[in-house]
Each structure stands twice: as C-alpha cells, then as structure tokens.
Amino acid sequence: MAKEPISEALDLSKEQMGWVLSSFALGYALFQTPGGMAADRLGTRKILTGIIVVWSVFTGLTAKAWSYVSLLVIRFLFGAGEAGAFPAINRAVFSWIPLKERGTVTGINFSGSRLGAAFALPLLSVVITEWGWQFSFYLLGAVGVLVSILWFLLFRDKPEDHPLISQEEKDFIIKNRQKPSSEVKKLPLSVMFKNKNMWLAMVQYFCSNFTFFFALTWLYPHVKETFHLDAVTAGWYASMPLLAGALGNWFSGWWIDNIYKKGDYKKSRWLPAATGFALAGIGLIASSFMTEVNSAVFFLSIAIFGADMTLPPSWTFCADIGKQQAGAVSGNMNMAGNLGSFLTALIFPYLLVWDGTPSFFFYTAAALNVLAIFIWLNMDPEKEILIA
Questions:
Q1: Where are the domains of the chain?
Q2: Would you identify the CATH topology of the domain 3-176+189-376?
Q3: Would the CA dihedral through 331, 332, 337, 339 be positive or negative?
Q4: What CA–CA distance (Å, rounded) separates 112 from 122?
Q5: pTM to 2 decimal places
Q6: For the packed helices 3-10 and 68-82, what is the interaxial angle rounded to 10 degrees?
Q7: What is the pLDDT of residues 248-274, one digit of tens each?
Q8: Burial class of residue 161, CB neighbours in 10 A (0-12, 13-18, 19+)
C-alpha cells in the first residue's frame, strides 16, 4: 500500500522496491528456526511478547528511513524481529488445543493475518492520502505495542496455569490434546535436516508462500497499474483475494478436523493441502488470461483461497511430528516458506520488465503448486521426528 509514496519519496525503482520487500522476507526467513526454538524453551508468552514489541518498533522506524540502504536495513531487521511469531503460536497450539480441533484453530489463527491485511488495504489508503505514509507506520507500530501488552497480560503457556479458565475446561484440554513425548529434549538442527518429513514440509511450504506472498507485496500495484485504478479503488480490489484467503483458512481448518474425526489421520492433512494447491494453480493460470479487473481479481481470489487452504494442514503437520518441539519444526518449515516469499518479492518486478506481463510469474507459481501436490502424497503426520 505504501510502496508508491515510499518509492516517490526515496526515488526508488520497481526493482529496488523488490529488494526492499524481499529484505523483509529474508530477515523473516533466517530467524524463523531460532525463534521457534526459543518458544519451545522459554514459552510462547515471553517470546511472542518480545517479538511483537520488536516488530512494532521497526514498523515505526520504517517512517524514518532516509535512503534506499537505510530502508533495506530497517526492513531486514523488521523481518528478523517478526520471525518466530507463527512458530511460537504453533507451540502454544500443541499445549492448548485438543488434537481433533487443531485444524480449525490453526485456520482461524492464520485467517486473522489475512483479515487484518484485507481491512488495512482500503483503510491505510485513506490514512496515507490524508496524513502521509510516515503516519501510517507510526499508527501500526503503536497498535502493535498495545497488542503485546494485552498478550502478556492475558496469555499463559499452559492451560494448567491460566487463572481465568475453569478446572473443567483445563481437564478437558489435558485429556484431549496430543500426548507429549515421554522425555523432553532439545531438537538439534542436524536431526531435523535428516528427517524426510521435515524436508517435504519445507519444500511444499516454499511453493505455498511463493504464491501467497504475491498478494502481500505486488498484488496491489499489479491491480492498480494493470487496470488503471485510483488508490482507494485498487485497495478494495486488492483486499478481495486476502478475504478469500481468510475463507480458505477457515474452510481448510474445518475440513481437516472433519476428516480427522472420521478416523483418517493422514487424509485429514494431505487432502485439504492438495486441494488448495490445485485451486491455487488453476486460479493463477486463469487470471493471467483475464483482461478485465473483476474477472482477474475473481481468479486471483481463487488462487489465494487455495494457497491459504495449504496453511492449516502445513502447520498442523508440524505440530503432529514435532510435538513439544513444534516451535522449532514450524520455524524450519516457515524458514523455507519465506525463502519462497523472498524470491516472490524480488523476481516479480524483474520478470515483469523482462516479459512485459506477469504471465511468466503466474506460470512459475502454478508449476510449483502442482509440484507441492505430489510432495504431500509422500508426507506422513504419524511419523514423529525422533531424538536419538
């Protein structure tokens, strides 16, 4: 949303903005695993509070960027500071959520980030128009600090320790959540990287993020410039795929739990994921042929609906095989996924200049989605990562 005014203020080209956007994704990717490991060791309450404070500070500092290099550094540190948030949440899911409800809860969790982005696009377009792009970053930073305070006050790492829930509910959670490993040990990177499930989870999540990160970075300028829209109208159109993504998370999470309750553990993970990847590929290819904004955004919405369908099974899978080390396993997967985000943010403007249209990018993303379908057919949620 702020790409255009920032580019104008700092005299940046599209290619330079690609590096700015990808610098965030690179910082975010590189610190995923350490963030997840920290959550496993120190608890989600402390780690996520710190993460939200750090990302809020760097959100505000973005408004102080005075050059291309300073913006690159700030966005990289922003990404590094935010890394570990979702792995930490996934560790909390292991402790708090009954196994038969894990898909739904994971879907609701990720839908929040999509809904936030969807509502922010048209709202921030007004804020930027009225008060400038710098003010929008100050505002978002302040909201983040407030959220961190609320999180620290209201959350506990274990349901057993929470003073505001009944003993009956605590007993229900403890009885129905996934049973922990008999002995809690540190999970070395060497063990994770030797595990087939871990590698498969990483590669398929790379494919997923390659599609979705386009919606967070280049979708708005793509829609605005391709169909010659004003800022506010483009914001509304760009929010539609993000809303579809939220729906994809909800649907996939519900579907996971519905299949699981029927007794098919493996199918409850791979079928929603494979369906999502198929829809993402179809939506991307179809959108590349559209010459009118409504039809183009409709098929892009199908693509993002499908891409977001892959999130609940992916993160549920990490909790399945990681158990008490769900933070570290999730961080590893999310690290690989955000290397996909890094490439998306970086190569889209270069491919656009090279090809003259976004079609080649959409074809590449569609091919990765097809690859991910076959990867999921070889993943097994019942094979825990064992520590020797």
A1: 3-176+189-376
A2: Growth Hormone; Chain: A; (1.20.1250)
A3: positive
A4: 17
A5: 0.78
A6: 140
A7: 999 999 999 999 999 898 999 999 999
A8: exposed
